Amino acid sequence: MAKSDTVLSFDDVTFEYGPNNPILHEVSFSVRRGIKVTLMGQNGAGKSTIFQLITGQSVPESGSVNITNGVTIATARQVIPRDQMDLTVREFFEKCFSKKIYDIDPRIDDVLEVVNLKGHEKVHDRIVRSFSGGQQARLLLASALIQEPDLLLLDEPTNNLDKAGIEHLTTFLKDYKKTCIVISHDSDFLNSFTHGVLYLDIFTHKIEQYVGDYFDVVQQIAARLEKENRKNAQLAKLIQEKKDQANVFANKGGQMRVVAKRMREKAEDLEEEIVEVRKEDKTIRAFIIPSQQELIGEILHLTSCKVLQHKKGVIKPVERKVNISLKKNNHLLLAGPNGIGKSTLLEAIAHGKATGAIVAPGVKIGYYRQDFSTLNFEDTVYQSLSGVMDRQTEEHLRSVAAGFLITGDLMHNRIKSLSEGQKGLVAFARLVLEKPGLLILDEPTNHINFRHIPVIAEALNKYEGAMILVSHVPEFVAKIRIDEILDLEK
Fold it and tell me: Domain 300-487 belongs to what architecture?
């Protein structure tokens, strides 16, 4: 590859968060100018850390990260930092630049058009916190795009986006002439623009580089695994034959012991030829969210809800009459575009502040928030899990945690140090330990490894309490039994 064609390269990069948490080990790869690359790997493997190394937020223990001179970089993070939630839109975008931009307002309007969050009167002075989760995801994306970088880094950009938002983003990336690296678990989205894949192996802490679209790469990985397994099976058979022959000759004594020794040496040589098969990402164990015992009759009655209408720059809450009753085994899907008020309604129900919602007395609510704000980020994982248990049973807690790949030192890490995907798994483990009667789930597949999603869908199918779900992932919703749909747009 010509050096002038390379915008980024890692040369023998090693990085770790302390001696017990290695992330990268002597990693080398390069990225060409103008291509779109997917960065894959299990939750917690260190994908976001690679972005931090590229942007200079983190520094390698050894090796070098090389950025071609003059290349500008911008990244769209997964979540808006808490200290930026009370900024105005204008202030939020101004923080994207190191110097003052005098024509910032028209540039904001242009970039909001690109992410399908159209500019309107007063939007520049609106507080970031006032936007829905999906709209905040678009603001994050826009904050990277407004910089028009040579190297665009996108971390889970489809999280919280509705269908229209994903379509806008896909079109933009197809037309984007510069280099882009994307972390995502959305296979259809990735396959529409990917030229290649960087796969971060959580076991070896190395990067494997593949060429082709997303589905091509998945097939390449599967073919490689099959070939390696087949070769190892053949070697194992030969090794056993040599060992058996060595035992036979050794028992005959005399000169045959020399032959036996040669046979053992041949077996040892063959053992060295066995290749280390690339381990597949671990998948969480099948699980059940136990429902609260003694649930009788109506669990939730919804008579009205507030819908947010956007007209000429003014957001107006409009009350809609509904009549929804949820009992045991009733699953409700709450639908509608970003910004219409779905998350606001869920939060109001969860905290007993929804004027048109009555939750039966004594019903325990399990609430999965898309921003994980139900978790105390200063708690250790162990404290977070033990805090929701009625009775402290160490063995049960650790068994549930292990099912969600939460083991060893991870139990003593603070929530704030986890990847977004790991926070999601902790949130699900808490629901299992809580045993709620009403389950409220706001975008529960965001940040979650695609291998885990069928397991989560099956668990929700088996949940025997009442459930309200918000999700913009049709493939996920299709796997779940839904008894009723409340579409806030209609």
Answer: 3-Layer(aba) Sandwich (3.40)
